[in-house]
Amino acid sequence: MKAIWHDTVIAESDDIVVLEGNHYFPISSLNRDCITFSNHHTMCSWKGQASYYSLLVNGEMNTDAAWYYPEPKNEADSIKDRVAFWKGVKIEA
Known about the structure:
9 strands, mainly beta, Metal Binding Protein, Guanine Nucleotide Exchange Factor, Chain A, globular, single chain
């Protein structure tokens, strides 16, 4: 599977966890050249606190387009050390 934004592969892996319709890639599969820091956080009642990354491709920023749970609750342990995408990021096989 690949996560693609602006014709650039952001993450690629065969080790995907699908949860609530979202494809979670191993954090180690990220193209770090395209990942930038975000201080945005949200809370999920059963997964815990989500942290975010922004994407930077060819000078264009996609703010908070990737999220991950650094310390998920026990019920969401399957997505520990994994990242999912939205905001126009395409997931392809």
